[in-house]
Amino acid sequence: MKPAVLPSLVVFLVFLSQFAVGIRNIPGRIAGFDIGQFVEAPEYRNGRECASQSSNRENFVSSCDPSLVHVAMTLDSEYLRGSIAAVHSVLRHASCPENVFFHFIAAEFDPASPRVLSRLVRSTFPSLSFKVYIFREDTVINLISSSIRQALESPLNYARNYLGDILDRCVDRVIYLDSDIIVVDDITKLWNTTLTGSRVIGAPEYCHANFTKYFTSSFWSDPGLPGSFSGRKPCYFNTGVMVMDLVRWREGSYRGKIETWMQIQKKRRIYDLGSLPPFLLVFAGDVEAIDHRWNQHGLGGDNVRGSCRSLHKGPVSLLHWSGKGKPWVRLDEKRPCPLDHLWEPYDLYEHKIERAKDQSFLGFSSLSELTEDSSFL
């Protein structure tokens, strides 16, 4: 795909509001809230192989269009810079960028307001097909228990539990992505993952990880709780990248199953890591295994120090800064980790703190060259 010369507006919003067309920069303060300044992204168009799917489109794209690739992400003022970079990376590498539809979940009481955030997305990506949904925090607030890191206690962090209820009923399949990722491959490849049998989600699995550490000694010493894994061989998987069958999700009442474990957690303290353990309790051992290249996670370090990490061995399609450290924060503080420079080319934030203009991945000319160097593996 390549940037087009003439933009076309194909935006679908929950909030209908007027905003000047053709604005190159988005004001740094909207409704009195400082959310920075973003430059307009290049216009990415479908390649020839996509022409038959998009030839009849005008200025409106329905989320019910069966040719679409559906991507769900949260949208909030704190992680906005990461979300914008993530969207940019998806479009930049997609073979059919106009066929990608984004479903943004915004918190009802975000300091910037969902309306402000949707305007900013609309102005940064004028031709993006997307819809913004309001997530009512009172849906989950009473189910959240304290976590090892405060950010993991945010109600929006649990929005993935409710995608089957929030998204339009005609959306029967979605890719869920965290906001601290960049995609460096065609998202269609991930979309085409087959969920075999009755499996509800697909994600990269890490069966070498110490699975027991994701739950407390109180859980493992209980005479009944560990039996929830009976008949399964549970493996750790990261919920920041998932392919989800929403039809099976709704039919199986998986929202309720996850909430049940959250209710037990409030009484028994069986885990410490926020929204991840309930997913492990419900799905671990019954996940469609996706190639590890689709979640090179942990680049943000651990949940306490956020120290630098290197890539896992093997090819890379998606980089994920899970953990405490976020690339935009470390870059602005002039203490970046080596891999943070791979995130930087997708950053559309205009008022960046002065950094060296030569951004060649610390001497490496590309991601492939970096991953081939053994010192980074």
UniProtKB/TrEMBL annotation:
Keywords linked to the UniProt accession: Glycosyltransferase, Signal, Signal-anchor, Transferase, Transmembrane
Q: Name one Pfam family in it.
A: Glyco_transf_8
Q: What is its EC number?
A: 2.4.1.-
UniProt-annotated location(s): Endomembrane system; Membrane
Pathway per the UniProt entry: Glycan metabolism; pectin biosynthesis
The kind of enzyme this is, by top-level EC class, is transferase
Q: What is its main location?
A: membrane
Signal peptide region: 1-22
Query: How does this chain sit within the bilayer?
Result: Single-pass membrane protein; Single-pass type II membrane protein
Q: Which domain of life is it from?
A: Eukaryota
Q: Could you tell me which PANTHER family the record lists for this protein?
A: GALACTURONOSYLTRANSFERASE-LIKE 9-RELATED, GLYCOSYLTRANSFERASE 8 DOMAIN-CONTAINING PROTEIN
Give the family this protein belongs to, as stated in its UniProt record: Belongs to the glycosyltransferase 8 family.
Q: Can you name this protein?
A: Hexosyltransferase
Q: What's the source species for this entry?
A: Brassica cretica
